[in-house]
Amino acid sequence: MGSTFIVQGVTLGAEGIISEFTPLPREISHKWNPKQIGEHLLLKSLTYMVAMPFYSASLIETVQSEIIRDNTGILECIREGIGRVIGLGVPHSKRLLPLLSLIFPTVLHGVLHYIISSVIQKFVLLILKRKTYSSHLAETTSPVQSMLDAYFPELIANFAASLCSDVILYPLETVLHRLHIQGTRTIIDNTDLGYEVLPINTQYEGMRDCINTIRQEEGVLGFYKGFGAVIIQYTLHAAVLQITKIIYSTLLQNSV
User: Residues 20-38: pLDDT tens digits?
Assistant: First the structure.
């Protein structure tokens, strides 16, 4: 979990620094134009490129089996990421793909995820706010309901945006993860059996070869391996949102 937060921190920091020293906008104004959107997406692309080595190191930590994992420190992700850039650190096999060949799939996934989630988030939020406005005109709402209507639509919109973008881009994410892990001597748990470990012995030459190989050897369902974890993740997310709504409503009613 620590490496995941580090990647988020590196991403936010890189985006802030790049936007500070370049004319690339960090936010899109209401009076947007195609040039502004293009510059904003360029900023996102550069940010994903800077964070890519640390994302790769964090991914390896995430999937590595607990059986052979050492007790690494919280900054191990940074050390491994820098080592990946300058070619030092843990020795890797010859099947390790160079970072240059990982730039396109990493940036593509990041930018598409950002675009899809942003569009869906704004669309769902617009629908919810119109629905809330119509209900306010139709009948008088309580202070409790007004407070919920002010904050809860934002949470629902973010949930829907994250869910849709993760589901739509899951096949691309599968390809991306396999490319990043290849050649890193990573040992993963056999989640089908639950009692042994498996080495990563893939030999993809790039993104196109990975897609063709998965389609030929595993079929279309090969792109959706591990999708059950996403279902569990968002089921729990929805449950947390519902519980939060109930608790928030109860606290507001008690305070009124």
Answer: 999 999 888 777 788 999 9
Angle, helices 76-86/34-63, rounded to nearest 10 degrees: 110
Q: pTM for the whole thing?
A: 0.86
Return the closest-CA partner of residue 245 out of 142, 152, 131.
Answer: 152
Strand ranges, E, within the chain: 187-189, 197-199
Ordered DSSP codes for 49-60: HHHHHHHHHHHH
CA angle 5, 182, 54 (to 5 degrees): 25
Say how far apart CA 238 and CA 193 lie, in whole Å: 29
Distant-in-sequence, close-in-space partners of 111: CB < 8 Å, separation ≥ 6: 41, 44, 45, 48
Residue 169 has phi, psi (to 5 degrees) of -95, 10
Q: How far apart are CA 141 and CA 184, in angstroms?
A: 58
Q: Average model confidence (pLDDT) for the chain?
A: 85
* Stretch 216-223: mean pLDDT: 93
224: left (phi over 0), alpha (psi -120 to 50) or beta: alpha
